[in-house]
Model the fold of this input.
Amino acid sequence: MPCFCTALAREKSGLMKILCDTCSILMVIRIAPDMLTDEKYGCFTIQEVREEIIRQQKFKDKYTWRHGFKDKIRCIPNSEIINNDFVNQHLDVANLLIENNTINKKTGRLFDLSPVDRRFIACALSFGHRVSTGDNDIKDIASQEFSKAFKGSISPLGMINMWIRKGLIDWSDELHGYVADWNRTEEAPQPRRQKIEYKKLTGLKYPGS
Done:
């Protein structure tokens, strides 16, 4: 298991730190099984996300293979979250924003974030991580209300492209099939520029929306 403190100390080395949510992990972990256990990937998650993946019935039904990766979903230690004043401060603000019916200026609708979503974004902001998520409300509230602290987001396809460029993944038809499976599971559309990059890197057309 990677040491979280060591990973933080490597910030100046240029390693991109990414906090991944439930859907992002489920999209990518078959492609990079060590994404959360090998620090070269720069990926982290929180315990609540792991619990969603393992315990929620909708994920049991939709991703029947996920149990085989249970031991691969390593998390930031809860002690480093619960005892972190910055996390608690960001979480308090996030809770207030939701309780006060804050409007998403992009959509004109109220922000709709679950308690897990709020803990997720509080950790990303406090630890200086980018986020990988298909939930636009998470990205929008971070950029709208926490613009100075938010490090931005990266799509699951963007992570894959980055890992291919770095030589962390040897691309294959099997891995391409996992990406094609995103359509069947109705995952969020990926950015156009990342689809173009995917084709350049793999020689294969991105197989989805």
